[in-house]
Amino acid sequence: MISFPAAGLITGFILAIVISAALGFLLGRALTRSRYIERLTRAETTSRILTDRTEDLEADAQMAGEITAAIGPLAASVNHLQENLQDQDRTQLEQITRLNTQIGQLSQQNLRLQEQTGSLAGALNSTTQRGDWGEVQLRRIVEYSGLLPHVDFDTQVSSTRDGRSHRPDMTVNLPGGGTIIIDAKTPLSARMESADATDEDHARALLRHVDSLASKEYWKSFEAAPDFVVCFVPTDGLLSSAAATYPKMIDHALGKNVVLASPATLLVLLKTVALNWRQADMSTSATEVLRLGTELYERIGTLVSHVTRMGSSLDRSVDDYNRFVASLESRFLVTARKFPSTGIVDTELDAVAQLDSRSRGVSAEELIRPSSAGQDPFTSESPTDLRGRHTGTA
Fold it and tell me: Per the record, where are the segments of Polar residues compositional bias (predicted)?
């Protein structure tokens, strides 16, 4: 039999175990609840976070949609711009390729031009060839102005004065027998012999040529020539540069009876000469028409005289015919008409009618009394034998 202390001890031990188990149960439940609460709290937090993230994602998705809607046309424009840039790049590349080709061709042309320029410079270094060039330019201008060679102008005409022979490059004939003398030997030595030549060197060379040309006094070697000689400068640039360097160049030349003429000024001068020739031709033609009219009028007067004499002859023939008819009626037909009464013939002779019409004479007074032979009925001057300038005579 168990004693009371031992039973109390066992009871206390059991009670302690029960209390410990209860306390362990309560502690485990509390711990479990605490963990549950913690997990629930974490779940709620996670749910809130997920909700917030979902809302953020929805907002981002909406914003992305708006951005996509806004960026869509821009993207198309960017694509179109990119295509245009690619096209422009291709076009620029093609243009650059063509430009390189053209630059190459231009370089070749420049080389050929330099060669030709060198050849021209070498040719113009010769005084004879420079003179030929000036003469060719002069001939072109003269022919362009409308003047005819060997009629209106002549080249290389020689004349002798004081034992010296003079031969200007060209002489232009004027109506009435005048002559304009032109020299085309342009001084280009200052330009051609040295690359460092300045406008002052060219101006001094032209001044020396003017003085030399004035000393020849070409106008005294030709009859009816004006007291000056034309110095032809083949290009306007040469004359303008010389005049700009020495402003008194033209006055100095005129003071020495030398007229400096560029292609433009010479063309105006020659056009004026051509106009005077046309007016002279018209005057010559009018005079020739007047002479022919006078000659025709005189011949018409002679024809009228013949017609008048023919009319008088016809009138005399009519009178003779009428006298013959009267004689025929009175002397012959009177007896002949008696034959039908004898029975020999049955038909009567017809009567012969006389003519009573007369020829019509010329009634115009100026044709009845024409002007004297060799006289102009309009001016009473003797006609002259005129010849046109294009027949080879002046």
Answer: 372-383
